[in-house]
Amino acid sequence: MSAPFLLGKVIDTIYATGADTETMAASLTSLCIMLTGVFLCGGAANATRVYLMQISGQRIVRNLRTSIFSSILRQEVAFFDRNRTGELINRLSADTAVVGRSITDNLSDGLRAVAQAAAGVSMMFYVSPSLASFVLLIVPPVAVLAVGYGRYLRSISKRTQDALAQATQLAEERISNMRTVRAFGKELSEVNTYTQKADEVLSLARKEAVLRAGFFGVTGLSGNLMILSVLYKGGLLMASQHMTVGELSSFLMYTFWVGISIAGLSSFYSELMKGFGAGARLWELLDRKPEFPLNEGLVLPPDQLKGQLEFCDVSFAYPTRKEAPIFQNLSLLVPAGTIMAVVGSSGSGKSTLVSMLLRLYDPDAGIINIDGHDIRDLNPYWLRSHIGTVSQEPVLFSCSIRDNIAYGAGDPDAVTTEDIYRAARVANAHDFIQAFPKGFDTIVGEKGVLLSGEGQRQKHSRVMIPSSISLALDAENEFLVQEALERLMEGRSLCLFVIIAHRLSTIQNANAVAVLDQRRVAECGQHTELLSNRQGLFRKLMEKQAFLQEEQKRALC
Ligand SMILES: Nc1ncnc2c1ncn2[C@@H]1O[C@H](COP(=O)(O)OP(=O)(O)OP(=O)(O)O)[C@@H](O)[C@H]1O
């Protein structure tokens, strides 16, 4: 006897024979044994399913996270001007978690619900195709409703994740600039701003809850409608002798079964749509092709790299501020083997010049050449590995000083302790690092300004750009940094230096000085020559500088 009829036949037999208590007991016992068997097997299968889904789910999330992180790190620098740290971190942690949930546990539950529903519906059709067709008339309107609901849920989920990303962005910025927040006594107002952002997330979550409740209500109701229609239509069929009691009872059971599966399916569908919403930005990130290649292009043999640098008619505006050009038709030639100091008032574009040389941004017009090669033809990875920079913002990772110094090397694992000491000595940092109780093993915090890890890397540099020696440094540190730079410049066979400098002592080491003003190189020549021009910009700049330093000194006294 075929399985779908089995249960119906058992009930029919009991009903038709007016079964006595023993027959009833025997039937119930065999039913219990069968159910216990199914229950135990089901338990073991379920446990295996949960375990496997958990493991594979975590693996999916891990793969998603690493692919996204890799995609983020490949993007051009302008991408990071548009997408801020906190937001990206949120994508990496929260969005991937939501997507992970929707495709792991949920997918397994969903597949089970689909299989259960499919089996239930097949049984219904097997027992009575006409009754099944009638009962399932409810499905098309529910399906249409589900599509609309799914779309809306997806958009809400996307908005929720966006709002969450903004909240994380705000928190990240404020926490990482805690000193500024404290200095201005902005703690309470920042808490209020964050609360507003958190409220936005809450109000979207509320909308989602209402939507979900509505949808679950409708699917629950549709299950009940199915049962009512079975009772109504099945009763008619039974009265007209087209259906037996057993068939109707078993049909009813399968309808229950399908009703429960539909509840499972709704939950699966909701989670899936939520995952799609949260995943929208992740797919965008994954699919995004960086505007610049990372490691493609021309690599010059070492003997061909002389170090002549030329900016020809360069015009540039930051992609996020196209309306405010930084350079217009800027031209500058730095012959090989010379040291060029670049000076200019704050905001005149000194750092931008360096960013362009490092090919973090491409000019909107004009060309930047190194030894006659347009830097757009050169391999950016190779180019940067030959340019050493000393940043005015010493960026340190939260690990030991030793690891921070080694980070600058091509292969940090190959760096010896002696290399690290040498780099620290060159950077004038060896003695004060040794003075820490844990020396080079001292753990520095995020942005724990102690020293720059570039010493290592500069060993291999042919072009070097120490950027602004910050005025904010106190007198002693400034002297140490100056001295370190001079030491770096002395003992090396570098072809070209571009120094971005404020101090005359640094500028004096240069063969020529370029003064940036009004989006171009306003003056260029030897520093003595430029200083002798009383009306010249350089002269004015240096006078202002001297005045500021005098002020600073007085403030220190
Ligand atoms: N990533 C960026 N996106 C948009 N604008 C930027 C960006 N970086 C710098 N700017 C703007 O470009 C202009 C030039 O900045 P840049 O940092 O190159 O000047 P600078 O001469 O190095 O200044 P300072 O001496 O103060 O360091 C400034 O108006 C600055 O606000």
Structural description of this entry:
The protein is α/β, with parallel strands linked by helices and 557 residues long. It folds into three domains: 3-287, ABC transporter type 1, transmembrane domain (ABC transporter transmembrane region fold, Up-down Bundle), CATH 1.20.1560; 302-391 and 462-556, P-loop containing nucleotide triphosphate hydrolases (Rossmann fold); 392-453, no CATH class. The chain contains 20 helices and ten strands. The strands form two sheets. It has a six-stranded mixed β-sheet with strand order 6-7-8-3-9-10, with helices on both faces. Strands 2-1-4-5 form a four-stranded antiparallel β-sheet, with no helix packed on it. The chain is elongated, with a radius of gyration of 36 Å. The chain binds adenosine-5'-triphosphate.
Quick summary:
Helices cover 63% and strands 10% of the residues. The chain is α/β, with parallel strands linked by helices and 557 residues long.
Layout of secondary structure:
Elements: H1 3-17, H2 21-74, H3 77-82, H4 85-103, H5 105-127, H6 129-135, H7 139-176, H8 178-183, H9 187-239, H10 245-287, E1 309-316, E2 327-334, E3 339-344, H11 350-357, E4 365-370, E5 373-374, H12 380-385, E6 387-390, H13 401-407, H14 417-426, H15 430-434, H16 455-458, E7 463-466, H17 475-490, E8 496-500, H18 504-507, E9 512-517, E10 520-525, H19 527-532, H20 537-556
Parallel strand pairs: 3-8, 3-9, 6-7, 7-8
Antiparallel strand pairs: 1-2, 1-4, 4-5, 9-10
Helix pairs in contact: 1-10, 2-4, 2-10, 4-7, 4-10, 5-6, 5-10, 6-9, 7-9, 7-10, 9-10
